[in-house]
Amino acid sequence: MTPSSKADKKAAVDIAAWMFNIVTSVGIIIVNKALMATYGFTFATTLTGLHFVTTTLMTLVLRWLGYIQPSHLPVADLLKFVLFANFSIVGMNVSLMWNSVGFYQIAKLSMIPVSCLLEVVFDKIRYSRDTKLSILIVLLGVAVCTVTDVSVNTKGFVAAFVAVWSTALQQYYVHYLQRKYSLSSFNLLGHTAPIQAGSLLLLGPFVDYWLTNKRVDAFKYDTASLLFLILSCTIAIGTNLSQFICIGRFTAVTFQVLGHMKTILVLMLGFIFFGREGLNLHVVLGMMIAIMGMVWYGNASSKPGGKERRSYSLPKTSQPKKDSLLETSDTDDKP
Question: In a 10 Å sphere around its CB, with 0-12 CB exposed, 13-18 middle and 19+ buried, how is residue 28 labelled?
Fold first, then answer.
C-alpha cells in the first residue's frame, strides 16, 4: 500500500470514528433528556450502571463470536481505571447539582488544560505555539456559547475539582492502557465494563437517592419510559465504544477539544427542535469562534512539531493482534 493510500485510509477511518462518537453522544444526550425531563427518571448514576450492563453484554457476545481475542490487563491497572471512571461519573452528577450551570461549564472546559498537563508530565508531549493558541480559541468560543451565570461555593468547587481530575485521568488512562498493553477498544471495554456495571449498580441507587431524595425502586415504570430506557442503554453501547476508539486512536486532549463540537451540535439541535429561545448574537459568535478553533487545532496539531513526544516511548506489553476495523497500531504519536 502506497503512503498516500495509507494516509487516505487512515483519514477515512478517523472521520468514521469521530462521526460514530458524535452521533452516539448527541443521540444519548437527547434520549436521556427526554427520559429525565419527560418521564422523570432522574437516576443518572444508576442509569450509567445500566449502560455498562448492556455494554458488558455486547462484549460477551463479541467474545463468544470470536471478535474479541483473549487479552491481559493487570488487576491494579483495572482497579485504578474503574476508580477514576466512577469518581468521574459521580463527581459530574454532584457538580451539576451543587454548582450553577455557568460554573459547571467552566469546570468542563478546564478538562482540556488538565488533560494537556497530564500529557506534558507523563508522556513528555510538547505543543507548538499554534496548537496552544488553537486550544485557547476553542475554550473561548465554547465559553461564550455556554457560560452564563457563574456562582460557586466550597462544596461545589470540591465536587467540580474531583470531577475534572478524575475525568481527565480516566480519559488519559484509556489511551495509556491501550498503548501499554496493545489492547483494542473492544478488549479494554471487555475488561472494564463488567466492573463498572457492578460497582455503579451497587453504588448508584444510594448516590441517586442522596442527590434526588427519590428511590429508583419506587419509580413508576410504564411502556414509554421503558422504551426510552432501553433506547438509552442501546445507544450507550456505541457511546462507550466510540469513546475508547477515539481516545485510543488520538489522545484525551484531542478527544476533549474536538469533543466540544458535540456541545455546539447539541445547542444547534436544541434551537432547531425546541425553539429559538436563547439563540442570540453572542451564542452564534461563540459557535463560530469554537468551530474555527477546532479547525485550527486539527491543522496545527497535525503539522510536524505541532504536537510531539520528546524522546520518550512507552514500554508495551505484547498482546494478540487487534480485532477492530477502527483500531490501528500507530497511535503513539497522533494528535
Answer: buried
Grid coordinates representing 63 are: 467474545
For the record, the C-alpha cell of 297 comes out as: 487545532
Mapping DSSP to helix (H, G, I), strand (E, B) and coil, where does residue 126 land? strand
Domain boundaries defined on the chain: 8-124+152-251
CA distances to 172, 179, 181, 210 from 318, in Å = 20, 10, 6, 44
For residue 216, what is the DSSP state? Answer: G
Distance CA 228, CA 34 (A): 8
The sign one gets for the Cα dihedral 284, 111, 179, 55 is: negative
Residue by residue, pLDDT tens for the chain (335 residues) are: 566 677 778 778 888 888 898 889 888 988 998 898 888 999 999 999 999 999 999 999 988 988 888 899 999 999 999 999 999 999 988 888 888 777 887 888 888 899 999 988 988 888 888 888 988 998 888 888 777 666 778 888 899 999 999 999 999 999 899 999 999 888 999 999 999 999 999 999 999 999 899 999 999 999 999 999 999 999 999 999 999 988 888 878 888 887 777 777 777 766 666 555 556 677 778 878 888 888 888 788 877 777 766 654 555 555 544 444 444 434 344 44
d(CA 67, CA 120): 35
